[in-house]
Specification:
Arc Repressor Mutant, subunit A, 31 helices, globular, 5-stranded parallel sheet, mainly alpha
Length: about 725
């Protein structure tokens, strides 16, 4: 995990030196500091600037959680888990995951845009601060959290000197040679705008076109109009609203219309989404680019770079103003439906492209689109008639929930979608429900919730047979076979997965799920001693993945092939295969594949004679298993390699030596554990801390037995227990 996820500053930070010093002092004294103030006064910018300056104080880094686009209070803890870069496959509530992760860390958490979720945020922070003594929270919002121990810094508008510096500097950036107007009129404009940075930024964007005197006259008219209409508002709220309203009046009709329509987006959006969602009556799609460029030039929309490429974002205050105008036009519901339809289409495209060379791009695209996908799911769940759309969308995102470490949030949406009361079912509605059911079964299996998995998959199978949906029936059968695999019933796993694969072939179904079924069948055969058969299946999967550019399933095939190379005594090949497996799974944040690879790399290390490194890797694997669920799925077969490794390493190092190195591994971060596992170790005698014993083959000559074919003493079952070591 990176030490910080703070965004880079895109332009010069102006003023606020005294406020930054005071905020730093307060963070020395208090563990929860909240910066409050009117919208647009610069709370977020000050908080981020201060957090960046104080990074060295916090050995475990600084993390930013942005909550402004979140609407569901139940997702606040999920958003914090995401901000911390955590992946958790268990049934634990996200709050428990946060408490466990933060308990021993010294970290600064920056919380931005929480005011509409203040009750949920306050309760969560109260729990985290009481149980995580090294945690400090810097919050930025329009009102305090009112949590015991909270210190509040009320951010005032800028003084005249800083306001003039900001206004003139931003005007030059917008294209003015110099800020037009003399110092006196410039100071008057800053005062009329109350020194509010957002209002100043909006004014600066107009200075290349208007003189300061012209702007002052327009503001005079706008203030008089506002004072007649909104006398109950606070003065600075009126000032900001005036500045935004004045910017609105200066916009062309097309710009105003796009501004209103953009308010339906949550978080970042791209040009194609804007063209589809916002194009239409009054604004043809081929005009959207030019009009968006004008809003960008006026600082009403900001551009940002993301892992998925350039995106645009509208400030919350500006977006809220646009939403009022959209409501006044009576067009809110139509636009929200268009937004929903676009993101349902995006999810469908991503599902298809997941089985392609664009898999990493799909993962990044879905990550960036997540706030808008959440908004689309909320729209689907607001109306009973649209419940099947929610089921379809939550099911379509299976690749993201299962392949990119989002099981907990996926479970949240799948449960909500399937729990909604749908309209009378037709075939399309039934297909959507069936897909959501088998995806829920898949997610529940990976979370270790066998009861929920069986219930969902049984319902899916029964309803699929009744509806004549052979595809959904095959998926339900496949996932029941996966459950048997993790429950140590290898003959049943082989039978069910084999039956599903035959159905897929007959139906012409080929995707990452189908190939994963072939890998799972290979595992079942390997665990029954047919290593050659397992290698043949995974070699075929690897070939198809190379043809299609698929990497996620390829990683699991490499795991089985690495295991086979290890059983055959080819340590170099095993290390190479498992290193690639580990790298891919780390890229996609798939902890299951990642930790399985680390476990086998530990066995590679001990068979090469480096017992100390094997113990470190086994220790590093255990915190990952805690995030996944039951260690080794509670499976005797999957536990076999770990038990064998622990036995050999303990024999060579002794109980104390093994324990010391194991605890060293437990203390590694996920990134450090991956780096450690990927390190080349060709000559164990030269490795510091290694056992110095001669490398050995993992198994005796003759037919290679499979680790875990017989349940080792003390190994866990899927019903509970601890892993060896």
């Amino acid at each position: 995990m990176r030490r910080s996820n703070l965004p880079a500053e895109l332009n010069r930070f102006v003023g606020r030196a005294a406020e930054q010093d005071e905020l730093a002092r307060m963070l020395d004294e208090f563990r929860l500091v909240t910066v409050v103030g009117v919208g647009g006064v610069g709370k977020t910018r000050l908080a981020l600037r201060t957090a960046a300056a104080l990074q060295k104080r916090y050995v475990d880094g600084v993390r930013l959680a942005e909550l402004s686009s979140l609407r569901d209070p139940d997702l606040v803890a999920h958003a914090l888990v995401e901000a911390l870069g955590l992946t958790d496959h268990t049934l634990r509530r996200p709050r428990e995951v946060l408490v466990e992760h933060l308990a021993e860390l010294r970290l600064l958490l920056v919380l931005d845009g929480f005011e509409h979720l203040v009750e949920e945020c306050a309760g969560l922070l109260r729990q985290l601060l009481s149980r995580c003594p090294g945690l400090t929270v810097l919050a930025a919002g329009r009102r305090p959290l009112r949590v015991d121990g909270e210190a509040v810094l009320t951010l005032a508008p800028m003084d005249d000197a800083d306001a003039m510096d900001l206004l003139s500097g931003r005007a030059v950036e917008a294209g003015a040679a110099v800020a037009p107007g003399g110092p006196g009129s410039l100071r008057e404009l800053c005062r009329r705008l109350d020194g509010i940075p957002l209002a100043l930024e909006l004014a600066a964007a107009r200075l290349p076109l208007l003189t300061v005197e012209e702007m002052l006259r327009r503001l005079d008219d706008r203030f008089r109009l506002l004072d007649r209409g909104r006398r109950g508002a606070l003065p600075r709220h009126r000032t900001l609203r005036t500045a935004i309203g004045w910017s609105h009046e200066l916009c062309t009709p097309e710009e105003r219309l796009l501004w209103a329509r953009l308010s339906v987006f949550a978080g970042p959006f791209d040009l194609e989404a804007v063209e589809y969602v916002c194009g239409g009556p009054g604004l043809p799609a081929d005009r959207v680019l030019d009009v968006l460029g004008e809003l960008l030039a006026q600082a009403l929309v900001a551009r940002e770079d993301t892992a998925a490429g350039p995106r645009y974002r509208m400030l919350d205050t500006v977006g809220a103003y646009g939403a009022e105008w959209l409501a006044a036009l009576g067009d809110t519901e139509r636009m929200r439906r268009r937004h929903r339809d676009w993101y349902m289409g995006l999810a469908t495209w991503c599902e298809l492209e997941w089985f392609s060379p664009r898999q990493a791009e799909v993962a990044a695209c879905t990550d960036v689109a997540l706030p808008n996908l959440r908004a689309a799911l909320e729209v689907c769940l607001e109306v009973a008639e649209d419940a099947s759309l929610a089921q379809h969308l939550a099911g379509t995102l299976w690749f993201y929930w299962a392949g990119c470490g989002r099981l907990s949030e996926g479970r949240h949406w799948l449960d909500r979608a399937l729990g909604a009361v749908a309209s009378p079912a037709d075939s399309a509605h039934e297909d959507a429900r069936l897909k959501a059911l088998w995806v829920l079964g898949y997610v529940a299996i990976l979370q270790g919730d066998d009861t929920a998995a069986v219930a969902a998959l049984h319902e899916c199978g029964e309803r699929a047979r009744a509806a004549g949906n052979a595809v959904a029936e095959a998926y339900a059968t496949h996932r029941m076979g996966c459950l048997a695999l993790l429950s140590d019933d290898m003959p049943r796993a082989e039978e069910l997965i084999g039956r599903a694969l035959a159905a897929y072939r007959e139906l012409g179904e080929l995707n990452s799920n189908v190939l994963m079924g072939q890998v799972e069948l290979a595992m079942a055969r390997a665990f029954q001693g047919d290593v050659e058969g397992a290698v043949a299946l995974c070699a075929e999967v690897r070939e198809v993945c190379e043809e299609r550019g698929e990497r996620w399933t390829r990683a699991y095939a490499l795991y089985v092939l690495g295991y086979a190379a290890l059983t055959g005594g080819d340590h170099a090949a095993a290390r190479e295969l498992l290193a690639e497996c580990l790298t891919i799974n780390h890229t996609f944040r798939d902890l299951v594949g990642l930790v399985l690879a680390i476990e086998l790399l530990a066995l590679v290390a001990v068979t090469e004679g480096d017992a100390a490194e094997a113990a470190v890797l086994q220790g590093a694997a255990m915190p990952v298993w805690d995030a996944v669920g039951l260690p080794l799925f509670g499976s005797a077969h999957f536990n076999g390699a770990r038990a064998l490794c622990a036995g050999r390493a303990g024999e060579l190092l002794g109980a104390r030596g093994y324990g010391d190195r194991y605890r060293e591994g437990e203390g590694l971060s996920l990134d450090a554990a991956v780096d450690r596992a990927l390190a080349e170790r060709r000559d164990p005698a030269m490795i510091g801390g290694g056992s110095g014993v001669r490398a050995q083959r993992p198994f005796r000559s003759g037919r290679a037995p499979v680790p875990g074919t017989r349940k080792p003493a003390g190994s866990p079952s899927r019903k509970g227990g601890e892993a060896a070591g």
